[in-house]
Amino acid sequence: MHGTSSLSEVDRLLTICNGCRYCEGLCAVFPAMEMRRTFADADINYLANLCHQCSACYSDCQYSPPHEFSVNIPAAMAVARNDSYAQYVWPGFLAGVFNRNGLLVTLLTATSLAAFVIGFVLWVDPAALYSRHAGDFYKVMPHNAMASIFGAVALYAVLAFTISLTRFWRDINGGTPIGGRDFGRAVIDTFHLTYLHGGGGGCTSEDDKPSPSRRIFHHFTFYGFLLCFAATSVATLYHYVFGWHAPYNLVSLPVILGTVGGIGLLVGPAGLYALSLRRDPTLTDDKRRGMATAFIAMLFLVALSGLLLMLLRDTAAMGILLAIHLGTVLGLFLSLPYGKFVHGLYRFLALVKYAAERRQGAFVE
Amino acid sequence: MASSSIFDENYDVVVIGGGNAAICAAITARRAGRNVVVLEGAPEFYRGGNTRHTRNLRCSHDGTAPTMTGPYEQGEFLDDLYRVTGGQTDKALAELTIAKSRELLGWMDEQGVRFQPPLGGTLSLGKTNAFFLGGGRGMLNALYRKAEELGVVCLYDAKVTGLNIENGYFVSAQVDFKGVDQTVRGKALVAAAGGFESNIEWLKEYWGEAAENFIIRGTRFNRGDVLRLLLDAGVQPVGDPTQCHAIALDARAPKFDGGIATRLDSIVFGIVVNRDAQRFYDEGEDVWPKRYAIWGRLIAQQPDQIAYSIVDSRSIRLFMPSIFPAIEAQTIGELAGKLSLDAATLEKTVADFNAAVQPGAFDHTVLDDCRTQGLAIEKTHWARAIDHPPYYAYPLRPGITFTYLGVRVNKEARMFMTDGQLSGNMFAAGEIMAGNVLGKGYLAGIGMTIGAVFGRLAGEGAALHARN
């Protein structure tokens, strides 16, 4: 017996898949499935997060609808995966946020955006707000104020991630011993998106023709995000370690990293969104698609406002653009533990477990 | 294309069927510059006949393929074929099939078909068989994509109801296309429409009412209508009409199209009894891959075509799980009750079996020395007393994979007429002519080999004819 109907459905499907096994070359889910004969709730949460939803197993399946077995692994896994975020979320009373996620993220962003714009208009001297500062943001908002707001929100996000991921890990891992090389393997699989690939052909999420598009746009998004994160980290080092204060030169490391990353965060999310419009709704958790849409919209807005701020930082528009950028970044930070961002963290841990399981080659009783 | 213009065309090549052989023929003829129509009787989802349930093809190769171990030489392949058929094969066609199988990996790759190394439980086939990434449906999807990209017209729900054949010469086909009767004319025919395994009425001609209890592993569209039309038009038959490939399936499988997932591998680990709670064959005769294909026939010969595989808790984890739950009980009597078998008889059958088990070292990976002694029907390997509760049972039925009856062809895949003459423009490929090469028995992946080799030959032959 399973806790939810989505878990029961995945169990039903995996029992059929385990009698067929034709998909074992497509991704990590099926080899992991073959190490089991039965599927407890935690096994399903693990496998659901291991699934990258490339949908290759659907177009290759002899038993997909309208077959009476009605095997639809991508959709069943997507539902179970989204349920798992709610199951492990901290604090637990926020479990419902994954259901109407688009609305939640929009409200959070609108609120933080409004807070910054109104705050700036109310508290910043109008003469300072609307004049040119040669790119010096701290003339409008002091560095310490900025650092303390975002530092506090980031710390909260880290706390929320740590607690919910610990819950997930304890549930799925059981006693499997994990080694450093399992983390290494998972890092490679994450950076390479080894399993968003249909076993070599690509994803069949849009139609039956395997295509590398989704993987490519995900790479743009992921590496864009990492570059922006690196830009912030480098700037933090410059500020605190070397005492080099912003604004940084256009050919300085933080600006180059941020610009390239920002372009990635425009191209990637735009591409992913365009693909999502063409996506077969029967292959997704259609009711909760807002989660992904909200996340990629946030990334796009953060990148767009950041790039505009960089381009126009010497003009009188800088003050208001700064408010808009900081507002969207705050909205993104606040929603990180309660939106699509978590998929990467859960999947990474599932990949760590998979690496350990495969290395040990043990049949899971 | 509007349906009127589809049916106004006089095609160079008309391909009937929609599986591996049909699409290999269509692609080959199209690549030779012919205009080609494919008439698939099934709806799009069920396209491809038995191909949609396959997983690999057997091919001779030199061992350099990245997804295979090897090499697998032609002589060894031929020996394997002779062994399973007991020599019931057309030697020239068998040698041709095997020689041409060496081209298949490269050719399939050109059509966009992807392969994977064998994993999990299929490692033993890594030398002889190339595995399709994602299985047969993945392979079919790639072939159809290529065919459509090249401009082959593929029609679904296009059931051939009549063939206009004059003196061994194909003129046109009558087609029920989405409920409307249409005529498709062509200069050459490739018949690649499979056997008649889903045609229960036809099976009854040889099996009587027992055929009602058969489960068909492929789709309900494998009805043999085109085979029947060709034989009625004077094409020479090949293969034993009474024979079919039949394995043991979980009796709870759907009547049609359960494919691979409903088979059961539990038989060697316990005993199998019939409706009367009696054993009827040596469950441990040989390793399972060599013997699994005899059990369909064995069960078909039992009363009501039903049997029960019974194992105990020591063996339940030694085979791939069924997709249906095992029927479980703490005693043999209770198990009999759940199976509606006579409890006293089943208890006696199990007790007699247990008493006859000789000491030995159980090893399910080899032909071990665990056997019974003193029974009317001995179990010659893997015999262990069934005495560790809980006990488990799976109901079994015959599962029909394919039939052997087909049309006789030559080395160009051209059909012979009953008067011994070759047809002017009719070619055959796949299961509809597999009986030329595979007179009986089965070798994993050989159906796809025959389909692809003769599909290409038929496509070449039909293309050549259409040009002349």
Uncertain residue segments of chain B = none
Give the N-to-C terminal Cα separation of chain B: 28 Å
CATH topology title of the domain at 98-167 and 197-341 in chain A: Fumarate Reductase Cytochrome B subunit
Radius of gyration of chain A: 22 Å
Please outline the helices and strands.
The complex is a heterodimer of chains A (365) and B (468).
Chain A: H1 5-18, H2 29-34, H3 41-50, H4 56-59, H5 73-88, H6 101-123, H7 126-129, H8 143-173, H9 180-192, H10 213-242, H11 253-278, H12 290-311, H13 318-335, H14 342-360
Chain B: H1 3-8, E1 10-16, H2 20-31, E2 36-39, E3 56-58, H3 74-85, H4 91-101, H5 104-110, E4 115-116, E5 129-132, H6 135-150, E6 153-155, E7 158-166, E8 169-177, E9 180-191, H7 200-207, E10 215-216, H8 225-232, E11 237-238, E12 244-250, E13 271-274, H9 288-291, H10 295-300, E14 307-312, E15 327-329, H11 332-339, H12 343-356, E16 391-403, E17 406-407, E18 414-416, E19 422-428, H13 446-467
Parallel strand pairs in B: 1-2, 1-9, 2-6, 9-19, 10-16
Antiparallel strand pairs in B: 3-5, 4-5, 7-8, 8-9, 11-17, 12-16, 13-14, 14-16, 15-16, 18-19
Helix pairs in contact in B: 2-6, 2-13, 3-4, 4-13, 11-12
Describe it for me?
The complex is a heterodimer of chains A (365) and B (468). With 365 residues, chain A is mainly alpha-helical. Chain A has a domain of 215 residues: Fumarate Reductase Cytochrome B subunit. In chain A, helix 6 runs parallel beside helix 12 and helix 9 crosses helix 14. Chain B has 2 domains: 303 residues, FAD/NAD(P)-binding domain (3-Layer(bba) Sandwich); 153 residues, Succinate dehydrogenase/fumarate reductase flavoprotein, catalytic domain (Flavocytochrome C3, Chain A, domain 1, Alpha-Beta Complex), CATH 3.90.700. The mean pLDDT of chain B is 95. In chain B, strand 7 and strand 8 form a beta hairpin. Chains A and B meet through helix 1 and helix 4 of A and helix 6 of B.
